[in-house]
Amino acid sequence: MLAKYTLLFAAMQAGLAAAIGNSVVSNRCDHDVYVFSVSKNQAAPSVKIPARSQWKQAYNACDGCATSLKISNTDAIVAGAHTQLEYTVAGGQLWYDISLVDCAKGQDGSSCPGWNKGLAINTTESACGKTQCQGSTFCTASAYFVDTPLLKLGTAEPVFTCPGAGLGMDLVYTLCSDEAPIKRSIAGRLSVNAM
Question: What is the pLDDT of residue 15?
Answer without folding.
Answer: 45
